[in-house]
Amino acid sequence: MEGALIARDRVGIQDFVLLDETTEVAVLSNLKKRFSKDLIYTYIGTLLVSVNPYKELDIYNKKQMEIYMGVNFFELPPHIYALADNAYHTMLTEFNNHFILISGESGAGKTEASKKILQYYAVSCPSTTLLNTVRDKMLMSNPVLEAFGNAKTLKNDNSSRFGKYMDIQFDSQGDAVGGHILNYLLEKSRVVHQNHGERNFHIFYQLVEGGSDDLLRKLGLERGCQHYNYLTQGECAILPSINDKNDWKTVKNALQVINFDEAATNHLFEVIASVLHLGNVRFDSDSKGYTLLSNNTELRWVSNLLGVDAHSLQEGLTFRKIEAKKDQVLSPFTTDHAIYARDALAKAIYGQTFTWLVNRINESMENKDPSRKTVIGLLDIYGFEVFYVNSFEQFCINYCNEKLQQLFIQLTLKSEQEEYEAEGIEWEPVQFFNNKIICDLIEEKHRGIISVLDEECLRPGDATDLTFLERLEEMMGNHPHFVTHKLADKMTRKTLERGDFRLLHYAGEVTYCVVGKRNHNELLGIMTLVLCVQVATQFKSSLQKLTEILMAKEAWYIRCLKSNESKQPGQFDEALIRHQVKYLGLMEHLRVRRAGFAYRRKYDIFLKRYKPLCPATWPHWRGPPADGVEVLVQHLGYLPDEYKMGRTKIFIRHPRTLFATEDAYEK
Ligand code: ATP
Ligand code: MG
Prior knowledge:
alpha+beta, seven-stranded mixed sheet, 21 strands, globular, binds magnesium ion
């Protein structure tokens, strides 16, 4: 059966572009109506909106995949498979590169979405035995990276604590021939500290719960998470919703698929075990307040497992080395310092291991014949974050979101404009908020926040959190998107503490803590994290690279919405959804799509569907399809103002015009 060309469901409307009015109320009501019938997907043109159902829906199986393979985007109800398929077929016919940007807040369903896309490609692309192995590796890289990079948080039991961009490489036949992953900003602080109700990375629990007796003995570990300081701070190590023993088996199996032989696997777990041992290293203070190791056993295990000298390790954790002329002087740490050094080492070890793991996975997925390939990139990246106390990590995450919003603005506007130009259609651009001003505020050379941070940290002498903040106040004094206690007017001042600065992000206000505050024994604050300078600059350049990678490709968007905060199936929290609709820029996107022409179709497709409505075009139109369409719409009484004829497509201004035509067709 030929489906409706304009997507109108029994329930609600399948494409927001076709709503009668573009108000937030109308958008929300349409989403809600559809969600109540388990229709979690809706389009805005080719952008896919998805609402997390928090329950298994019977829409992700082979049969469903087959329904969507090679079918025109708008002919079937919205689905993530339709988007995946459309990107794939466009890539094959136009032989160009694409990316799918998946965004949304924590728990909205980004990672699930990216897995569904990967599964779709694994099933739908043509296959040969040889290439199956590449495919398996791509699929199996997921459980491994999730074990090492995901954790239970208050918002999501399987929260990704790193950003991920994965290229899937296809040859000219459409076979998946290779893959490559780039990872961003792993949340390393989680290795040593977890908030109440949160866990460390899954892999630690999997190892101590699922590892064989023999393996644990070799690693000097005891069975059970309760033995390890780094695993119990959140007081929720064991959860009904997570089966660490089973997951352990999955990960072990996946490691084999991605070419980890026994030696490499052992090595990996030795390093993971060493972090657990480090967390159990304790210190006492002597009579002068200097630190002493309380017990050597744990440290010996660390030294064994990592193959480093026990004595040097101990010295490194309890003494500071001071270079004095030609000599080295050892000055003892206080216990606080020793704990800081221990935790810093644990974080560094884990961070390096994660990078190593990603590199190994990349080697195993490498495309052996890189000639003639096109790619589809999948970007699953952390959404905008606002907490009660926001520190450096949130600053980076929100900066990343500003950049992606900027990219979105450029690409959507650009492609819309290009389409009108290519088709020879006049149009007036829509006005909306351009967040470039905020990107500049953060990253501009010599003047942006990151540059100031850089300079302050390099300044010899007495740079502190406070001088950094003062310098920011000096530089950003009049900036409309920056405010501090000192710069604020009376009303705003009441809501700002000294030592904080606030940015007016495109998605809302966020207050960042600069001057360290004691919170759960962790020092928060931007400058306090000494390493953040390097990280901020490095992060800025890796985002720059990512932007370049993406700019060179054709964009597809999936916007994931979280339906409720309590992970309940079927609950639609209207206030929560309204907020996400706002900051994901859905209304703006909708307006851009509608500003010019809400609807456009290639002449031949339009004619094929509606030709029965006009005696002159039925049953056959002999002549150019464009002329047939002209005759057809004249006959239907389209007013000159309602449509434009482009080079290959008809553009229709209002959805109601098309609705009327579709109604006539159905009758
Ligand atoms: P984070 O930013 O924390 O990584 P996320 O956006 O990646 O969050 P997911 O891990 O993809 O969120 O989803 C959270 C949970 O929501 C999943 O573990 C699953 O239980 C449920 N979920 C998400 N998408 C779907 C879906 N399409 N169908 C059924 N359940 C889903
Ligand atoms: Mg995720």
